[in-house]
Amino acid sequence: MRTLIQHGTVVTASETFLADVAIDGETIVEIGRNISPEGFEKVVDASGKLVLPGAIDAHTHLAMPFGGTVSSDGYFAGTRAAACGGTTTVFDFILQDFGETMVDAIKRRDALCAPEAAVDYSFHVAVKDVSGKLLDSIGDAVDYGVPSFKVFMVYDFGVTDGVFYQVLQKAKEVGALIEVHAENNEIINTLTKEFLAEGKTDAWYHYASRPEFVEEEADKRAIAWAKATGAPLYIVHLANKGGVEAVTQAKDEGYSIYAETCPQYLEFTSDVYKLENARNFVCSPPMKGEESRQALWAAIRRGDIDTIATDHCPFQSYEKDWGKDDFTKIPNGCAGIENMYPYMLSAANNGEITFEQAVALCSTNPARIFGCQKKGAIAVGMDADLVVYDPEMDFVITNDKMHSDCDHTIWEGCKLHGYPVQTYSRGRLVYENGAFLGEAGWGNFVKCKLK
Ligand code: URP
Ligand code: ZN
Ligand code: ZN
Question: Furthest-apart CA pair in the chain: how many Å?
Answer without folding.
Answer: 74
